[in-house]
Amino acid sequence: MNFNQINQLYPNAYLSVEKPLSNAVYSWPFKNKWLSIPKSDLNSNEVALLSLLLPENQNDLSSNPWIQFLKHAGKQPTFIGKIRFLYFQIDTRHTDISLWLEVLKNMFNTKILAAFAIEPNQYCIVEKFDSTSYSSKELVGVLQTIDADIGSNTKLFIGRSWSSDDNLISYYTEEKKIFQSCVDQVISTVFTLQEIALPYFAKSKLQKSNIILFYRKHIYQDKQLSNIIKTLYQNQGNISLTAKKLYLHRNTLLYHLDKVNQNLGLDLKQMDNLLLAYMALL
């Protein structure tokens, strides 16, 4: 494929010696230059196809300094500002991983410093973090777009942003452990440490409590109740929003909550009571 062929399909495509800094274009290495096409001219399927036809010029992925640093105890790469680790889990049974990864990387406005497998179905992306980096809400939209377009099923744990002075290996290792411990239990597509800190750090203590075991046993006797408690907690006790999320009539939800109050003495409309019930499910 030569540039004239690409230019016939995408008249706004152009070549440059340096990779453009603009967030409005997708760029690929192309014959010792950079081929760039405005994002507005491409849909996600076209991005994926071009990424496969124009792979990045990396003779050996393992030579990436971030992969050497994080996976092989290499030297920490030098950088200015901050970076962020993003941890993904994908259902590999029905997904072309190469396609998924290329589409994912091209959806970012910021520079991707490295992308590598943690496990066969888990990946880490090292992102150069700045003011244009996606928020948690924006990343939900990104994953929804990708999953809808290529039929994938993705979850994401967003790590904290770190500077070069931080103990990156230690923080990466712990974030990865948290991600792998919690990803299968979390309902949300995208989650952060703030959202799962309580279950992660308190779980070992809770498992030893006979009182918590009592509540857990009785909660699970009602097949709907555990999901109601989890969803209500995630929505900060908001009855109307929880009913909407669970596709329940508000009065039906209130009936379940009243039943819990009668049987267990927990008023789930009160946050401290709801917290105790939620802890029983961890």
UniProtKB/TrEMBL annotation:
Residues 229-281 form the PucR C-terminal helix-turn-helix domain. InterPro entries: CdaR-like_regulators (IPR051448), Homeodomain-like_sf (IPR009057), PucR_C-HTH_dom (IPR025736), PucR_C-HTH_sf (IPR042070). This is PucR C-terminal helix-turn-helix domain-containing protein.
